[in-house]
Write a structure and sequence with these properties.
mainly alpha; minor pseudopilin epsh fold; 2 domains; 7 helices; 3 strands; 11% strand; globular
Length: 203
C-alpha cells in the first residue's frame, strides 16, 4: 500500500533580512544564486520522500553495496541535511552581528570562557571545515559546541539542537571574496542575528 509522503515547503524567496549583508560585502547576487541551491535541496528532499513512500519495502532486496533502499536513504540524508543547514543559515543572518546576546551569550561564556574565545574557535572551525561550521546545543551536557560539517550530511551530533550554521562552501562567498574565506567569515560575523539564534534554543 502506497503511503502519502509528507513534503517540505520549497522556499520561494529568502528572508528579507538576508539582504542586510550587502553592507558588509556579501552581495544580493550571491544570495540569489544561493537560493536556487536551497530550493534544489528542498525539491530533492520531496522527490526522495515521495519515492520512499511509494516503494514496496522488501528487506530481502536491500543491499549495502547497491540497492534502491540504500541509494534513497543515503541521498535523503544529503538532501534533507542541505535543506535544514541552509534554512538555519539564512534565518540567522542579516542581524547586527557583534557580541552574542541573551541565553546564547551565557552558554557561550560557560563553554568557551569568553565571547572572544568563542569567536576565535568559530573562525578556526570555519577555516578548517570543508563545507559548514555549526554551533549547537548539546542536551546531554547542556553546553554549546562548535562542530565541523564537511558535507550536508557529515558528522551529525546526536541529541544536539542546531543554533547557527555557517556555509563555507565556495559558492557562499566566491563572487564577493574569491578564495579569501577568512574575509567572508569576518563579514558574516558582522551580520549574525543573535535574536534568531536565541529563538532556536530549546525552551
Amino acid at each position: 500500500m502506497t503511503m502519502e509522503a509528507k513534503l517540505v515547503t520549497v522556499p520561494e524567496s529568502l528572508p528579507s533580512n538576508v539582504y542586510n549583508t550587502e553592507r558588509v560585502g556579501i552581495s544580493k547576487a550571491t544570495h540569489d544564486a544561493h537560493l536556487t541551491l536551497w530550493q534544489g535541496y528542498a525539491k530533492k528532499t520531496n522527490e526522495i520522500r515521495s519515492a520512499l513512500a511509494a516503494m514496496e519495502v522488501d528487506p530481502g532486496s536491500a543491499n549495502q553495496i547497491y540497492s534502491q533502499m540504500r541509494a534513497l536513504k543515503v541521498n535523503y540524508a544529503f538532501a534533507y541535511g542541505g535543506f535544514i543547514n541552509h534554512s538555519v543559515y539564512f534565518n540567522t543572518m542579516g542581524g547586527e552581528g557583534g557580541e552574542a546576546t541573551g541565553a546564547v551569550a551565557d552558554l557561550i561564556k560557560e563553554s568557551f570562557g569568553s565571547f572572544e574565545r568563542w569567536v576565535a574557535d568559530w573562525k578556526a572551525t570555519g577555516i578548517a571545515g570543508r563545507g559548514w561550521a555549526y554551533l549547537a546545543y548539546d542536551h546531554e551536557e547542556q553546553r554549546v559546541h562548535n562542530y565541523i560539517g564537511d558535507g550536508q550530511d557529515t558528522f551529525p551530533a546526536w541529541n544536539n539542537t542546531l543554533l547557527l550554521a555557517m556555509d563555507v562552501y565556495e559558492h557562499a562567498y566566491f563572487l564577493d571574496f574569491q578564495t579569501a574565506r577568512a574575509k567572508y567569515i569576518d563579514a558574516y560575523m558582522q551580520v549574525i542575528d543573535w535574536n534568531a539564534v536565541n529563538a532556536r534554543l530549546p525552551k
